[in-house]
Amino acid sequence: MTVSATPALGLDVLRSPARLAEVESEGRREARLRRLGRLSDLRPESLTAYLGPGVQKAGLWARLWGCKTIVIDSDPVALEALGRDAAQLGVSKLLTIHELDPVSPKRPEISPPAELIFAQGLAAAVGFDAAVEAMRPLLVTDGLLALFQRTWITPEVPDDVKRYWEAHTVGKIRTIKETMARYSELGFEPMTCELIPAQAWDEHFERVDAQLTALSGGDGPETEVGKALAALREEQQIHQAGGKGSTSVGCFVGRRVEPDSPPRWPRRGFGE
Question: What's the alpha-carbon Rg for the chain, to the nearest Å?
Answer without folding.
Answer: 19
